[in-house]
Design goal:
about 425 residues, alpha/beta, Aspartate Aminotransferase, domain 2, 2 domains, 7-stranded mixed beta sheet
Length: about 425
């Protein structure tokens, strides 16, 4: 990043590493996968972010998804300020919780009953506990490349053979705990059918990102999600859609609306907090009534339903619910897709671009990407070069080949043109 002045960011990173693990509070922010120095951000507005050295970037990270209407949207900011004047936390119910839950259920009718929490990790962890309590079973099935937060039982990779029990991918996770998690390849319905036939009576739930956003952007093959739904019903297994990332991103009703699949439970986050920490999990009444105080499955949180987060989420969904919002979002997303594909073609470089609604990813490969193994075999070194050179030209992408990018309502045609021109120049350089 020699073309950028990052003097203040570098100094802050040095200070941060002395007091914060790796200098960051979430690993991917450290730029380890792409090299260079992480940006320390001063402010953001609309489609742009500004670092402490005064550099401006068109932002496609969008705080990893939630800023779907753009950074520092005036309506959301003003609503948060008014809410803060009344108090920041009460440890008691507020009308705002009911209002946001009602808005969410209207868009996600599969979430008949829901509970607000503070993060996607809390949502997925709690949904799995509810499924176990409901079924009386212990085993959980997840898929390679899908990330569901940092709960112990989900930091697990596949074993040595197909459909084998998992082993921990993080120190500090007990092996005995990990053995209750079965990891399978995404988009392989045969492998899922086989494990259900073998151990279905012991499987409480299946948790999946219907569109994988933590290996880039991997789309389900035709019939794959439908097959999961059919098989889980047959074996009495709870199907959990982790839509923390895809929720309101793939469509207004998320992946489940786009693919016409009704899961038993859904986990949400990101967008429904309007930029503040939030998560939610919900589903069928008979499952959710297992949650305390209605039932024996315990889950609690002092800041759950926080009035500031509820306020931000309500305002965010009000904007998204306007009739023309998604027409604009999808048009912008399609324009970016066409522009980046065209840039790669003109530069004569082999890439694969995938998009699901407002989520997208560019892989450096000439082969289709259907699962994590395919994604891992793409040219990540070339992606790192692409990332750095795009940053030098004022375009901020996710600092990993295995993370999705996001479009917002605030991005302009000028932003898209500038991004495409930068990509064309970089493609030619790194070809």
């Amino acid at each position: 990043m020699s073309k950028l002045n990052l003097k203040k960011s570098r100094e802050l990173f040095r200070k941060a590493k002395r007091i914060i693990p790796g200098g960051v509070n979430s690993p991917v922010r450290a730029f380890s996968a792409v090299g260079g120095n992480p940006l320390f951000i001063e402010s953001a507005k609309g489609s742009k972010i500004y670092d402490v050295d005064g550099n401006e970037y068109i932002d496609y990270v969008q705080s990893w998804g939630p800023m779907i209407v753009g950074h520092a949207n005036p309506k959301i900011i003003n609503a948060i300020k008014k809410a803060a004047d009344k108090g920041t936390s009460f440890g008691a119910p507020t009308p705002l919780e009911i209002e946001l839950a009602t808005m969410v259920r209207k868009v996600y009718p599969s979430m008949e009953v829901m509970r607000m929490v503070n993060s996607g990790t809390e949502a997925t962890m709690s949904a799995i506990r509810a499924a176990r309590g409901f079924t009386g079973r212990d085993k959980v099935v997840k898929f390679e490349g899908c990330y569901h937060g940092h709960a112990d039982g989900l930091l697990v990779k596949a074993g040595s053979g197909l459909a084998t029990f998992g082993v921990p991918t993080s120190a500090g996770v007990p092996k005995d705990y990990a053995r209750n998690t079965i990891t399978l390849p995404y988009n392989d319905l045969k492998a899922f059918r086989q494990i259900c036939e073998k151990a279905g009576k012991n499987i409480a739930c299946v948790i999946i990102e219907p569109v994988v956003g933590n290996s880039g952007c991997i789309l389900p093959k035709p019939g794959y999600l439908e097959g999961l739904r059919k098989i889980t019903k047959k074996h009495g297994i709870v199907l959990i859609f982790d839509e923390v990332m895809t929720g309101f991103r793939v469509s207004f009703g998320g992946a489940q609306k786009a693919f016409k699949i009704k899961p038993d439970m859904t986990c949400l986050g990101k967008v429904i907090g309007g930029g503040l920490p939030v998560g939610a999990y919900g589903g069928k009444k008979e499952i959710m009534r297992m949650i305390s105080p209605d039932g024996p499955v315990y889950q609690a949180g002092t800041l759950s339903g926080n009035p500031l987060a509820m306020t931000a989420g309500i305002e965010n969904l009000k904007i998204l619910s306007k009739p023309d919002t998604y027409k604009k979002l999808m048009a912008k997303s399609a324009a970016l897709e066409d522009a980046l594909k065209n840039a790669a073609k003109r530069a004569g470089i082999k890439t694969k671009f995938y998009r699901a609604g407002t989520m997208f990813c560019t892989y450096f490969t000439d082969k289709e990407v259907y699962n994590f193994t395919d994604a891992a075999n793409t040219n990540t070194v070339m992606f790192g070069k692409f990332f750095i050179r795009m940053l030098e030209r004022g375009v901020n992408l996710a600092p990993s080949a295995f993370e999705a990018g996001f479009m917002s309502l605030a991005h302009t045609n000028s932003d898209i043109k500038k991004t495409a021109q930068a990509a064309y120049e970089v493609f030619k350089e790194i070809k």
